[in-house]
Amino acid sequence: LAAGKFNSVVLSGAGGRCFHVLAGEPLRTIGAILHRGEPGEVIVDSVTAQLLGEAASLEPIEGPVKPAHEAARLDFLGDAASEDLVPARAPAPTLWSAPESFLPRVVVVRSQSGLAAWMMEFRVMTLVYVRLGASDVADAAAGARLHGMFEVVTQAAEALDVEIFRVVADEKGVIALIACGLPPFSSESNAAGAVG
Predict the structure, then answer these.
(1) How far is CA 116 from CA 26, 105, 108, 169, in A?
(2) How confident is the model over 165-186, as pLDDT tens digits?
(3) CA gap 20, 135 in Å, rounded
């Protein structure tokens, strides 16, 4: 777990599909500390440890790391009766008038066609991962670069009739997952189109 400032970014392309991405420095922190524990353990960064304070039993993890990436193992979490642990009330979220713009085309098309149940099928697909930018969209210029890269990838995907299935931010950056072969846009040359 890592605490810090996240930036909320909504990416949208010419095709109308939208993606909500949370980006920020805590993602890099998570990437730096995630391998410092064993499976099943909860590892927290120094900021989270400070926020938990006396409500948590923490064991520092020693090792050669940057001070910004100090970590501790969360052994026990007591009663969180402290007012300090209650997050500040967030502003009301923006309600989108067209939530289907955030859904994959295959879901929208099948829903509009009146299919009450999913038709199961085996399908050969090719997935392409495209790094759009750094995981911390720190300012307006970084946001503009991210939007510009997304627009380029969107235009290429639409020209090839493939789907940008998901956009996520993690410690490696903001990544677009392009799925070649999703219905109703599939062909025999999906794999060739993916590397072309």
Answers:
(1) 41, 16, 12, 33
(2) 899 988 888 999 988 877 766 6
(3) 14
